[in-house]
Amino acid sequence: MKALLMLENGMTFEGTGFGYEHDVLCEVVFNSAMCGYTELLTDPSYAGQGVVMTFPLIGNYGICYDDAESTKPWLGAFIVRSVSGIASNFRCDVDLDTYLKQNKVPGMCGIDTRALTRVLRESGTMRGMISYGEAIDLAAMKKQIDAFVLKSYVPEVSDREGKVYGDGPIRVALADYGVKHNIIRCLVKRGCTVKCFPYDASMEEILAFSPDGVMLSNGPGDPQACVKSIEELKRLYNHGLPIFGICLGHQLMALAQGFDTYKLKYGHRGINHPVKDLEANRVYITSQNHGFVVNADTVDPAVADVSFVSMNDGSVEGLRYKNGRVFTVQFHPEASSGPLDTGFLFDKFIDLMGGSRI
Ligand SMILES: NC(=O)CC[C@H](N)C(=O)O
């Protein structure tokens, strides 16, 4: 079916629908990764976003359920140049088109994704809408985009079941704001028992598990919308447990300490983002997926130091708190997909919890 993407600035891009061909409103962002689309589709941090892949051919190795980062794809829409008609991989469970249909994720292909990406880079991330069919009413689309308000998906993606993973001796309470499962795998592999807590769990609920440390997960949307989580983190920080935060978890801890966050023009989404470790004076290549960052000017030097910065735009990529027990990063040390350079941060967390590495 014919598909049309309209951005909030009124620009339109024509293409063809695939996946679940139903009209959708989303925030349009781009990702520069050349592979790892299964991980991307199932990363809850993309909830509600229409993701444009800059790499032109997507779907050629199909979908392997074992690579999923959560139970289903969460993103609002998937926008690619060309969808491979052949899913060629011995591990493949289902092809991309069928997977998106089954999970009700609208797809759009056959558009000039590089031209679209240039627009998003120059004008910034924008709201947008994809409509399907022959009779598309442009004026009605524009109206809907203008009225569209981005919401926080954290309550939807956060798990309320209190699942427990692993059976190791180190007890980790995981604040689940929309966790990528590789964070859990990285902890279990290092000898942890990980129990998930919903985004709005109170400090008392978390402490009742008698954790050795708390892991703050990644998650979707504007960190400032997570008011209840920020309140609980303020109290948890003072309790004295080791805390490791990733991406949204990093932003929430910063807000809990009274630092500020702001929205980047077009975000960092890809698997080759260089960050500099300011202490070690080393650069690592990292996987990233975020639209917001901590404002360096608001970081109180009596409370925390900036530990990592982006080599691309100098923005804050990590904080080390002065109490010596709390550290957080904006990038994804669990990778999946992406480079494994910063996996040592999980070892650092294990050490802080008094455990020995396995
Ligand atoms: N991956 C994440 O946790 C993203 C954090 C936040 N939603 C952002 O876009 O900045």
TrEMBL record:
Q: Summarize subunit and interaction data from the UniProt record for this chain.
A: Composed of two chains; the small (or glutamine) chain promotes the hydrolysis of glutamine to ammonia, which is used by the large (or ammonia) chain to synthesize carbamoyl phosphate. Tetramer of heterodimers (alpha,beta)4.
Classification via SUPFAM superfamilies:
Carbamoyl phosphate synthetase, small subunit N-terminal domain, Class I glutamine amidotransferase-like
Protein name, per record:
Carbamoyl phosphate synthase small chain
Query: What is an example of a Pfam family matching this protein?
Result: GATase
Q: Which family does it belong to?
A: Belongs to the CarA family.
Residues noted as binding L-glutamine in the record, renumbered to the chain: 45, 219, 221, 248, 251, 289, 291-292
- What this chain does, per the record? Small subunit of the glutamine-dependent carbamoyl phosphate synthetase (CPSase). CPSase catalyzes the formation of carbamoyl phosphate from the ammonia moiety of glutamine, carbonate, and phosphate donated by ATP, constituting the first step of 2 biosynthetic pathways, one leading to arginine and/or urea and the other to pyrimidine nucleotides. The small subunit (glutamine amidotransferase) binds and cleaves glutamine to supply the large subunit with the substrate ammonia.
Instruction: Report TM segments.
Output: none
Q: Which InterPro entries match?
A: Anth_synth/Amidotransfase, CarbamoylP_synth_ssu, CarbamoylP_synth_ssu_N, CarbP_synth_ssu_N_sf, Class_I_gatase-like, CPSase_GATase1, GATASE
Say which domain of life the source belongs to.
Bacteria
Keywords, A to Z, come to: Amino-acid biosynthesis, Arginine biosynthesis, ATP-binding, Glutamine amidotransferase, Ligase, Nucleotide-binding, Pyrimidine biosynthesis
Looking up SMART domains in the UniProt record yields:
CPSase_sm_chain
Q: Where is this region: CPSase?
A: 1-169
